[in-house]
Write a structure and sequence with these properties.
The strands form 3 sheets. Strands 5-6-7-2-13-12 form a 6-stranded mixed beta sheet. It has a 6-stranded mixed beta sheet with strand order 8-15-14-11-9-10, with helices on both faces. Strands 1-4-3 form a 3-stranded antiparallel beta sheet, with no helix packed on it. The protein has helices at 6-13, 37-50, 82-85, 97-108, 145-155, 185-204, 206-219, 252-262, 266-284, 326-344, 349-359, 371-374, 442-455; strands spanning 2-3, 22-30, 60-62, 73-76, 86-90, 119-125, 132-139, 243-251, 294-300, 312-318, 381-387, 394-395, 398-406, 415-422, 425-433. Residues 175-219 have low confidence and may be disordered. Strand 5, helix 4 (97-108) and strand 6 (119-125) form a beta-alpha-beta unit. With 462 residues, the protein is α+β, with helices and mostly antiparallel strands. The chain is built from 13 helices and 15 strands.
Length: 462
């Protein structure tokens, strides 16, 4: 058995029947020239079943018994039941967006089996326009959003003539390392001691780092410090397990043009789009608060070449939904985002993790009966942006035509918005609690309206 760090076990501990803790994704592929939809689906299925050299993370499941040891250790299965993990389906006619998103909605509310490696892949046919869909879900204890996109990217190619496409769970060859003289016992001890000293230094720095963040909360009006309160809305109620999923993409160039004109980042443009859309959605339901919504944004701590898994912290940003003017909202979001990034800049990894824990503290108690109903909250929803490669991507010549993340609603956080920027498109995936958030798909209309408002603004002055 392998020890399970707390950054992984916390997602298993937080899981309930009404709060499944898996992340997912929906990808759409256009068959290559001369290939039918059925032939592409056959090819995907054949390659996936043949991909038997499986990476350890896709063999991993909580140790038995899952209710006890399963929160502390991993075990790995030698035999993988592909008939269970790989599923093939045909959408009912007409196979339009409604039928596709309904399929994802229904499947995303179902828990993954902890007595098996916790992942599934669904090959979807019958989609209007002749495309083939791949809907996958994998437990958040195994990967975060950045790692999930990495796994997808490795299974794809920028070469439309490449025919080596396989499954994302295939074991990757180890990187060749240059030969170095073997370390002496003293050298090994010195290296280990140095790591301990570095960790101790990071822990010792928690106090000063916390003081700096607390001071920012008092002196910087734009900074949303941990423990500050957010308004209560329909987004912040106890939820059931049924889900509703909405997805759409926009050309990344539209977002970049706004970013350049308003002297902001693409990430800030995404926040401004979400701000305008949420303001319109809540107003439709007579639930727009007088105070601004607050969004938590996961921030990746991954570095190039590091291991897949979970490595994230979190910051809070004020969405300025209390402001009627799009220009005023843009200015407020830019200021809040800048202050949040300034606060986290320069923190050591352990300190950044501590900040993330302090920012997301309500999640630790969300499943306690009555907590969501009677306790003030620090934020209203999560908004994530996971950047990917910009060039077109292919799987055995089939072009990736859409990439939409499917994330996690939680107790007190009935909606989650996650965005991937891949192959020239910004793919928005909005997942919500079905009963608690009616007409969720209207968010897509409001996102387009919000982007059009941003495009109509006068360019920012230097």
């Amino acid at each position: 058995m392998k020890y399970m760090p707390v950054t992984e076990s916390m997602f298993l501990i937080a899981e309930t029947r009404d709060q499944p803790m898996h992340v997912g994704g929906l990808q759409l592929f256009i068959p290559r020239d001369g290939q039918t939809t059925e032939e592409l689906a056959d090819e995907i299925c054949e390659r996936f079943y043949a991909a038997t050299d499986i990476a350890p993370m896709f063999r991993r499941r909580p140790a038995t018994p899952a209710q006890m040891a399963g929160y502390m250790a991993w075990t790995e299965d030698e035999d993988i039941d592909f008939d269970y993990h790989i599923r093939r389906t045909i959408l009912p006619r007409p196979g339009g967006p409604l039928q596709l998103l309904r399929y994802v909605s229904l499947n995303h509310g179902a828990l993954l089996d902890r007595r098996r490696p916790m992942w599934e892949v669904h090959i979807i046919e019958g989609i209007a326009g002749g495309r083939v869909g791949l809907y996958s879900k994998i437990h958040h204890s195994v990967v975060d959003g950045v790692s999930a996109l990495r796994l997808l990217q490795r299974a794809l190619s920028t070469d439309p003539d490449d025919r080596s496409g396989t499954a994302m769970w295939v074991r990757r060859p180890s990187r060749k390392r240059s030969k170095k003289p073997s370390k002496s016992l003293l050298g090994t001890f010195t290296g280990a001691a140095g790591a301990v000293v570095d960790a101790a230094g990071q822990v010792a720095g928690l106090g000063p780092a916390a003081a700096r963040i607390a001071a920012a909360g008092l002196t910087d009006k734009d900074y949303v410090a941990p423990m500050q309160m957010a308004p209560t809305t329909m987004l912040n109620q106890s939820i059931g397990s049924a889900r509703r999923f909405a997805a759409q993409d926009w050309p990344i160039e539209r977002l970049r043009d706004v970013a350049q004109a308003q002297q902001m980042t693409v990430n800030d443009v995404i926040l401004a789009m979400c701000s305008g859309a949420l303001r319109a959605y809540l107003d439709e339901h007579d639930d727009l608060p007088a105070e601004s919504l607050v969004a938590v944004m996961p921030v990746s701590l991954h570095t190039e070449g590091d291991a897949d898994g979970n490595a994230i912290t979190a910051i809070s940003v004020r969405l300025a939904t209390d402001l009627d003017s799009p220009a005023d909202r843009v200015a407020a979001i830019k200021a809040s985002s800048k202050s949040a990034k300034k606060a986290v800049r320069g923190l050591k990894p352990l300190q950044a993790l501590a900040l993330g824990a302090a920012t997301t503290w309500p999640l630790a108690f969300a499943t306690v009966p009555g907590f969501v109903e009677y306790t003030p909250r620090g934020f209203n929803l999560m908004i994530s942006n996971v950047p990917g490669p910009e060039e077109p991507l292919y799987w055995n010549g089939a072009k990736l035509d859409g990439c939409y993340p499917v994330s996690i609603p939680m107790e007190g956080l009935a909606m989650n918005i996650t965005v991937t920027t891949v192959a020239g498109k910004a793919g928005f995936g909005i997942i919500g609690a079905r009963a608690q958030l009616p007409s969720l798909q209207k968010i897509l209309v409001h996102l387009e309206s919000a982007l059009a408002e941003l495009e109509a603004l006068e360019p920012a002055q230097d």
